[in-house]
Amino acid sequence: MSDLDLASPAATTPSERRVALLALAWQAALPIALVVLLLGFAAVDSAVLTPGNLVNIMQQASYLALFAMAQTVVILTRGFDLALGPTVSMVSVGAALAMAVGVADGQEPGTVLLMGLAAGFALGAACGVFNGVVIAYLGVSPFVATLGSYNIAIGVATTISSGRPVQGVPDLFSWLLYGGNLFGVPAAIVITVIVGVALHLVLTRTVYGRALYIIGTNPRAATVAGLPVKRLLVATYVLCSTLAALGALMMTARTGSGEPNLGGSLSLQAIAAAVVGGTSLAGGRGGVGTAVVGALFVTILSNGMNLTRIDGYVQMVVLGAIVIAGVVLDRLRLERRG
Amino acid sequence: MDISVEPPRVAAAAPLLELKGISKRFTGVRALDHVDLDVRAGELHVLFGENGAGKSTLINVIAGTFPPDEGSFHFDGEEIRHLTPQRARAIGISPVFQEFSLVPSLTVEENLFLGREVSAGGVLRAGAMRKKARALIDELGFDLDPGRRVDDLSRAHQQMVEIAKALLGKVRLLILDEPTASLTERETGRLFELIAKLKAQGVGLIYVSHRMREIRALADRVTVLRDGRHIRTLDAARVTDGELVELMTGRRIDVLFPAIPHAPTEVAVDVEDLTLADGSVREVNFYARAGEITGIAGLVGCGKSELVRAIYGLEPIVGGTVRIEGTPYDAPAPRESLTRGVAYFPANRVAEGLALSRPIRENASMTALDLPAFARLGLLRQGSERGLVGRAMERLKLRPPNIERPAGALSGGNRQKVMLGRALTRELKVFLFDEPSVGIDVGAKLEVYEFMKQLVEAGAAVIVVSSELPEVLALSNRLYVMHHGRIATELTGTDKTEQNVLASFFKEHLATEAA
Question: Distance, in angstroms, between B103 CA and closest chain A CA?
Answer without folding.
Answer: 22
